[in-house]
Write a structure and sequence with these properties.
about 15% helix, about 25% strand, 6 helices, alpha+beta, 9-stranded mixed beta sheet
Length: about 300
């Protein structure tokens, strides 16, 4: 991990000029100690309560996968934008479909409305500090959506192939930025993130994840803007990835065009993180996106 990617915690005023420059150059920014010890404890306690208290007997056993050819698309997933729902790791099940792990050790992620429905997560998400960060990054009308805890469970935590967040939360032109908080130490052994620095200026958004006319979800070609507004791009090249090992409490800001990935977690330690995304409310977010705003609209930051 490159030391230049690690910067001091932000203030309510947002990021420093040096932090913004680092983010604009590399497409991601690691900020250690963004969560206090009390915030971290509250979010972990809430996560464990959610995992232990959800009702398995009424659950449709929806699995989550990032495989392009087999992306989850049932109603439980598609209607989760304003709810707190639970999605299983694929490898938590036997070949005959039986759950092989305790439910607390089988969930891939919890989503996608924690930033409104869970008080501890809401307090961290819709904060003055994060509003300041969004302003530093040029947002005029920042809106929060798709909040989730990703568990990366011990021994079965699935790999996530290289991807760009704006493919999943497409605005025209693209505007998404991810806020990614480490709730536990994230290391190479338990599946930390890896980034292709600067790829946000070389990798256009060429496909987007949508609701399909025939039902379910899938990827389609982007027929409008591939880059953020007024964005300076670079020529494509073969990408090299850098690992982003971080300590619990760190915040990673992730540009919607930057290529990033994570490997399987075959270790005995989980890799709990909390993430949400911010889009520019002045750009067009259309009805084809898999996640649709609740009746009151997306949350203002």
């Amino acid at each position: 991990m490159a030391p230049s990617r690690i910067t001091p915690p932000p203030s309510a005023d947002g990021l420093t000029a040096a932090q913004v420059a680092d983010f604009e150059e590399n497409g991601y920014l690691i900020i250690p100690d963004a969560l206090s010890s009390s915030q971290l404890s509250a979010l972990l306690a809430e996560t464990r309560t959610l995992l232990s208290s959800f009702d398995l007997s009424s659950h449709p056993l929806t699995k989550f996968t990032t495989d392009d050819s087999n992306h989850v698309g049932d109603d439980y997933f598609l209607t989760s934008g304003d709810k707190v729902r639970f999605f299983f790791e694929e490898d938590a099940f036997s070949t005959s479909g039986e759950l092989q792990k305790p439910k607390e050790k089988a969930i891939n992620k919890i989503g996608h409305y924690l930033h409104e429905l869970s008080p501890p997560f809401r307090a961290v998400s819709l904060s003055e500090r994060n509003s300041g960060i969004a302003r530093s990054l040029g947002f005029k009308k920042p809106e929060v959506l798709q909040s989730m805890v990703i568990c990366k469970q011990p021994e079965i935590g699935g790999a996530v192939p290289p991807h760009q967040d704006s493919c999943f939360l497409y605005t025209n032109p693209p505007s998404a930025v991810g806020w990614w908080y480490a709730l536990e130490d994230c290391t190479i052994s338990n599946g930390c993130l890896s980034f292709a620095p600067g790829s946000h200026r070389r990798a256009p958004i060429e496909k987007r994840f949508v609701k399909l006319d025939r039902g379910g979800t899938g990827f389609v070609e982007v027929d409008s803007a591939h880059w953020p507004r007024d964005f300076e791009t670079q020529e494509d090249k073969s990408e090299t990835y850098e690992t982003g090992e971080v300590k619990a409490g760190s915040l990673v800001l992730i540009h919607g065009n930057v290529l990033h990935k994570s490997e399987r977690n075959l270790s005995p330690k989980s890799r709990f993180i909390y993430t949400f995304h911010v889009i520019e409310g002045e750009e067009t977010y259309d009805g084809r996106n898999w996640l649709q705003p609740p009746e009151q609209g997306f949350s203002r930051l």
